[in-house]
Each structure stands twice: as structure tokens, then as C-alpha cells.
Amino acid sequence: MQFISNSKIKFLFVICSLFFFYFLLLGSIQPNYSGKKINSNLQAKVKITRGKFAIPRIESTTDEDAYFALGYVHAQDRLWQMQLLKRTIYGELTELFGSKLLRKDRLMRHFMFRHICKENFSKQPLKVKKNLIAYSKGVNQRIVEINSSYLDWGGIEFMLFPHTIPKWEPFDSIAILKLMAFDLTNKANQEIDTFIMGQNLDENQFRDLIPQYKGIHPSQLDLQMSQTTNTIKKSLGASNVWALSPIRSNTSSSIGASDPHLQIAAPIIWYMAGFKIKDQNVFGATIPGIPAFLIGRNNDIAWGMTNVGADDQDLLYINKEHSLNQKEIQSMNETFNISNKDSIQFKNQYTDQGPIIEADLLSNHTFSNDTKFVFQWTALNPNDLTLEAISHIMNAKSMNQAAEKLNLITSPYINLMLMD
Questions:
Q1: Phi and psi for 219 in degrees, rounded to 5?
Q2: In the chain, is it the N or the C terminus that has fewer CB atoms within a 10 Å radius of its CB?
Q3: Local confidence pLDDT in tens for the 420 residues of the chain
Q4: Under 8 Å CB-to-CB from 332, ≥6 apart: which residues?
Q5: Phi/psi of residue 281, each to 5°?
Q6: Of 116, 109, 107, residue with least CA distance to 358
Q7: Is the pTM of this model over 0.90?
Q8: For residues 312 and 378, is the Cβ–Cβ distance under 8 A?
Q9: What are residue 308's phi and psi, to 5 degrees?
Q10: Pair 367, 317: CB distance under 8 Å
Q11: b/e burial code for range 48-76 (CB count within 10 A of at least 16 → b)
């Protein structure tokens, strides 16, 4: 009989643990792109191929099958990113990351995006609804695989923050588009900056800098500023499109490029993919969570988009002169679940004109603690049909046809470049 020392047992345990952890890590980092799967949600066979850069090309005979597959590959490669975007727009980051993100969550909860996006979904045309439903089924197929497996974590982030991944609803995709709109505007903060500027300039100086300004001079408002802040936040950057006509390109084809001006992120917000639905080809840039090619080309045209920078937000100051009738105000208690802590409740208030938001949530310590605004924003429009307009562009046969539904674009406001 031979005995093994405690030190050797510990060494073997460490080695086995390292191999096991490596196996889990490898499976989380590199999805399995090979093999065949059977799914009852599909109407016919769908083929997904990837080149050396792992960009998926989806071949199907129906739109719904293609969108199901797009949802699946989005979740296969970027599910953590999708869940993070979803938690951001719904104000649910504290559930995973703790109270340090409570202020951000409180701001986002005021917008009631879950309710608004459900209503937006109900207003979509049947074709867009079907595509959103098919996409969500594809995402959920991947989520079921992860939630039911002990070895497939879906990404190293899910190992670090373990939780049951919630299902993807069709209206969640509309919410991610709203988050894009949030990322592309800062007009509420610009209104605050305009007020700060007015406190330091006389009326002639102020109107010389902003000749298009209409209304009373900001110094005539009875807004009380905090003693700790009177500086304006810097906002630098631009959003651009470029285009070459066929006579200026070596290929004798139109060439275009667009810079949508979204935030830098890791992983990048964009996800390249391609469709082949019968004889129609679509290729371009998607955002994980949104079943649409926001920049791309089909058999006949190409399109790109950039940020307009439109004045899409207004702050209505509430004071004694501009008070609200209490009958116009609705209240709702919001519960915030916080990782490793007890949940917290806050009361949010709403009007038909928009949510009532404490100034401190918009601009930290600029105004006195009791300052409140009614926040107006085009992204809160329950009749937003932006996805219908984008879907129409993706399937257009000409630039004139692509432009037919541009008036439906509500949020985000975009400059659209079309080429044939």
C-alpha cells in the first residue's frame, strides 16, 4: 500500500481546478459555430456561414427565419453586451453592480421606457412585429441554452456576475434603439449650460453669442444655482458622412462612409452581418439587440446614417409661477434591487407633458436640491415608428422608394445618406 502526501493532493487539486477553469473559460470566450440545430420556430432550413473574421452570413427563404438567426448569432457573440444595454435603458444596473449606479438607474427609470416600448411595439405594422418576435425567439433560444447548461456560461462576464438571464422581449429591441437616441443627444444639458452662461453675461453679450435664442434672458429666471458649480461642460466632436460619385471611384460605383458618432465601447457597439433571403442580399452594420441594418447595402441601394444633433429635448422649470395642478400629476413607486443590499424605493412623478425629474439627476449639484423640471423628449413618443422606416430602407429598390417613409423616423434623429 502506498500513501500520497497532503502536498501532492493539494497540487493535483490545483492542477485539476486550473484545467476545469480553463475549459469553462475557453467555452465562454469562443462560441461553437459548427454543427446543426433543430428548432420548431423555423419555417424552413437556415444556413449560417462565417469567414475568417467570424462575420455571419445568414441564408433563408423567409424574413422571419433570417431575423430568428440574427437574434441567435447576436446572442451567441454579444449576449452580455445586449443584457447590459437593456439594463441601462430600463434602469436596472444596480441589480448586478451595486448602489454606485443608483443615480444613473434613477434617471433612466423616470423615462418609463419599458412601458413606452411596449406601446411602441403595439403600434408597429404587422411585418415589423413579426420580425421583432422572430428576432426575440432567436435570442431566447441562446438564453435557454445558457440557463440550462452548467458548462456553457455564454461569456466570462456571466461567470463573474452569475444570475439567471432574463428572456428577451420583442419590445426590448425598440428600447435599445431608444438607448441609441439617449447616447446621441445632450440637449437637456445644453439647456442647463445656456442658463449658466446667462448668469455670467449681460443680455447683449448673451444674444451676440446665441442670436437665434428666443425668450427672456436666463438671469430673469428665479432658478437657484448651487454655490459649488458654475462651469459649462465641454462637448466636443462631430458626426460625418462622405460620398464619392461613380465617376470618381476606381470601381465606377458610388462609395459612401458614415460616422454615426456613438460612444467608444469594448466590445464595439457595431456588429457586421449579412442576409441572403431568396434573391435579396443585405449586408452591413447592426447593433446587437436591434434587428436592423442601420448602415448597409442591398442589391440596389446603400445607406448610411449620422447624428443630426437636433434640439429634441426641453426642460420646463417648475416654480410658483409655473406650477402644476396636482390633478395633472401621477405618482409611481419604483423599487431598485441592489446587489448585496436591501432594495430601495423612490417615488417618481409624471405628467402628460413628460416626467418630473429632480435637477440633481440631470446636472450634479448645479441647482438647489428642490429644483425640478418636466422633461420633454421625442424618444418618449409612444407612436414612434422609426423601425418601420429603417425596415423600408433595407428592402427598397431605389432611393426614391427608400425615402418614402423617412417622415416616420422619430428617435433618434438622423442624417440619412442614400446611394444607388
A1: -70, -15
A2: N
A3: 454 555 655 555 556 555 555 555 555 556 788 888 888 889 999 999 999 999 999 999 999 999 999 999 999 999 999 999 999 999 999 999 999 999 999 999 999 999 999 999 999 999 999 999 999 999 999 999 998 876 677 888 888 888 889 999 999 999 999 999 999 998 888 888 888 787 778 888 888 888 877 777 776 766 666 655 555 565 556 678 888 888 998 888 888 888 887 777 888 999 999 999 999 999 999 999 999 999 999 999 999 998 888 889 999 888 656 667 777 889 999 999 999 899 999 999 999 889 999 888 887 667 777 788 999 999 999 999 999 999 999 999 999 999 999 999 999 988 899 998
A4: 347, 348, 349, 350
A5: -110, 135
A6: 107
A7: no
A8: yes
A9: -75, -40
A10: no
A11: beeeeeeebbbbbebbbbbbbbbbbbbbb
Say how many residues make up the chain: 420
| Cell numbers placing 322 | 409655473
Contact residues for 230 (Cβ-Cβ < 8 A; gap 6+)? 196, 199, 200
Quick one: CA torsion of 257, 258, 259, 260, rounded to 10 degrees?
-150
For residue 386, what are the CA distances in angstroms to 59, 123, 175, 360? 26, 11, 12, 31
Residue 160 is inside which H or E element, if any? Answer: helix 156-160
With beta carbons less than 8 A apart as the criterion, state whether 393 and 402 touch.
yes
Output the nine-digit C-alpha cell for 86. Answer: 437593456
